[in-house]
Each structure stands twice: as C-alpha cells, then as structure tokens.
Amino acid sequence: MKSEYFIKNRKKFIDLMNNDSIAVIHSNTLYTSSADMNYDFEVDREFYYLTGIEKPDFIYMAEKNSDYVKETLFAYRKDEFEEKWTGYRLTSDELSEISGLTDVASIDKFYNSFAQVMAKRPYKKVYINTKILSSWKNYKTPYEYLSESISRKYPHIKIKNTSEITVPLRLTKEEYEIDLIKKAAAVTNCGLLRMMSSAYEGINEKELEAEFEYEVIKAGMKNSFAPIVAGGKNGLVLHYNENNNIISSGSLVLIDAGASYKNYCADVSRTFPVSGKFDIMQRKVYDIVLAANEAVIGAIKEGVTFDQLEDTAKSILSGGLIELGIMKTQDELGKYYYHTIGHSLGLDAHDPCDKSLPIKSGMVLTVEPGLYIKELNIGIRIEDNVLVTDTSCDILTSDIIKKAEDIEKYMHKGKKD
C-alpha cells in the first residue's frame, strides 16, 4: 500500500485531536505462548491505520498545538546480531517509505523524548490506544504500561482513548479499503468452494479447515480469524473452535471463515450438506435463513438502524419456524436464534462500531442470520459482506454461492470431477 494512504489517515486523525494535546500509539507486542515461544504477532489496528507498519513495540507520537504539528516514529534499532535470530530489520528510510513519516528515532529514546516534549510544552491531554485484554486479567498490555507510566510521572495529564477519534474514522471505508476487502472476499470464495468440493461423509473438520487454509496461504494472505468448521451438532455452537471431529453421514457443515488482505478482512459463513444433498428438513430450514439473509440485504441503505435490520431478520426467521411447527409464537425465537444480525467489517473482523447510530453510506457490514435447532442437530448461518450506499448496498461476496440448489449442483460436479 502507498504511504499517501497513511499520510491521509494521520491528517484526518490529527485534525480531530484537541489543540495542545499529544498522541502516543503503541503497535502492540509479542505475547508468550509457552516457554520461549510466541504467538504470531498481530499489529494494533489503530497503529496500522495510521502508519502502515506491522512491527512489534513501535510507537507513533504526534504533537498538536496552535503553532505546529510534529510526528515521530519510534522504532527498533538496526541490530546485526538480532537479525541473525529474528530476521531483517527495516531501515529508517524503509520505514519512512512505508509510512510517510520522516522523523524516525530509536524506541529506546521514547521516554526521554516524551519528557523533553513535556518539559518544553506541558500538554494536559494525551491520546493513547488503551486496551485491556479482558481474558488475560493478570496480564498488563503494553498500552496499559504506557498509560500508567505516563500517568504516574505526569498526574496532571488527562488520558484520552484514541478510539474516540479512530472509531468514527474507520467506520466508513475509502475506495482502496473496499478493494482490499473485495480481494480478501475473492480468496475466501476459493477456500469455501475448495471445502465444498473436498467434503465427504466421515471427513474430519480439521481436514476441511486445511483445504480453506491452502487457498489463503497460496494467495499470500492470512485468516481474518480462526476458521469455524462445525459439523452436525457442533454447528449449534456459535464460536466453535475445536475443528477436530468426524462429520457424520447426513450432517450439515457450518463454515465461518475469511481471508485477510493487508489486514482488511472478509468474514463469510456458508452451510452445506457433507453428502452434497440437503435432506427435506435441512432444506426447509436453510431456505428460511436464506430468505432472512436476502431480506435484510434488501433493506440496507443509509439511515436504517441495526435494530430495524434485526427486526426484519427476526420476522422472517420466526415466521418460518412457526410455519414448520417448530415454534408456536415469536417469543420462542431466542431459543433458535441467539446472536445479532451483523457487525461492521474492516481492519478487524469485528470493526468497532456504535450500533445505536444509523448506518452510513460507505460502511461495510456483515449480514448473518442463522437458526440453530438442537432437536434436529441443525445449525445454519449464511453470512455476506455488504457495502452500504445511499439507497441500497453492494454485496461484496456475491460470487460466493449460497442458494441450496447452487451448492448441491457445485458439490455434485466437484465429486464427479
């Protein structure tokens, strides 16, 4: 990606900062998985949005006052010995080429530089990308360390969360961001088709996951999140992640997966019969979910609310289940549909979004109605990604087949081939 994208993002960010304030944004760090092994690094998406750089333990600092704006990137030092162990380290010039930031300093100098800035001009507000990993209650993130160290030394400073600025900025997508999501969706399509054509009764969920991973890796991309490959009753679990069970004869397979390209995510769900043919009840339930999916997509335009879309989905889902005799009243729907209709999509699979506000043109959303019927071991979710326009929406995942007859036809052809 070109540096002008990130220069533009930073200008928008700085324009929304208060005067006489400073922003300090950490890139995230490596987390230990076990012993001397680390989890794969995931860059903080706010840091990436502003710099385009994907390296651990970097800091972007921006000063804003009435006289000037000053931006500095604090990065690792070139270290020949470290490069022998962990690989090539980008030079200051290379970091500048990626980000458009011309002032690049060693990360070792950050706290001294910050102290010098505060001595020269004692800012009263500092923006930090503060985050708490709620699942790691005894583990402090680098964001918390940064925030606490600044608060201790400068108790007069008011800490503000950068999300106050970045969430509205990231909400609507630029053309280049939409193009990246489309590319991620195209590879997601390849992966899902490969899974459908490779499925057979008795296959392990992990083998199907590998088929999806193959297409993602071949394209030079990564997963937006850990794929969900849920056969039979496992499809009743919304965030099933074991992916290591045999898919028995007659079962449905619920897939929730997506490729990520330059950190922009696709997030798609498809459900198909492992045998290649829906049975009668599976098909009836599937068509109800598909009708809800299509109705919600048809209702999307600027100005509608998530609650209105939710009502559209619930009306069709409950009406369909009542017609099938599975429910008697709409009040029972919570037993069979227990998530929301969708979310914002972008640099995160669940991009930050205030769902109480009306939808805006330029937002990218997921539409993902589902039904989960324990008595029948049926779990079905159909999820698409759409770009909101003034009067409707564009389906970014329209090439990914979802009609039951199209799925059956494709799977039959794949098994013959």
Describe this structure in words.
This protein is of the alpha+beta class and 417 residues long. It folds into two domains: 3-169, 3-Layer(aba) Sandwich (Creatine Amidinohydrolase, Chain A, domain 1), CATH 3.40.350; 172-416, Creatinase/methionine aminopeptidase superfamily (Creatine Amidinohydrolase, Alpha-Beta Complex). The chain has helices spanning 3-16, 45-51, 80-86, 92-99, 110-120, 142-153, 163-171, 175-198, 205-218, 280-299, 306-324, 404-416, and strands at 21-26, 32-34, 37-38, 59-64, 69-75, 104-106, 125-128, 158-161, 222-223, 228-231, 252-257, 259-261, 264-265, 268-273, 364-367, 370-373, 378-381, 384-388, 393-395. The strands form six sheets. The protein has a six-stranded mixed beta sheet, with helices on both faces. Strand 7 (125-128), helix 6 and strand 8 (158-161) form a beta-alpha-beta unit. The longest helix is centred in the middle third of the chain and has 24 residues, at 175-198. It is elongated. It starts with a helix and ends with a helix. The mean pLDDT is 96.
Specify the number of helices.
12
Can you tell me the CATH architecture of the largest domain? Answer: Alpha-Beta Complex
Number of domains: 2
Beta-strand content estimate: 15-25%
| Spatial strand sequence of the major β-sheet | 6-5-4-1-7-8
Please report the first level of CATH classification, the CATH class of the largest domain.
Alpha Beta
In total, how many beta strands?
19
> Mean pLDDT, nearest integer?
96
How is the CATH topology of the largest domain named?
Creatine Amidinohydrolase
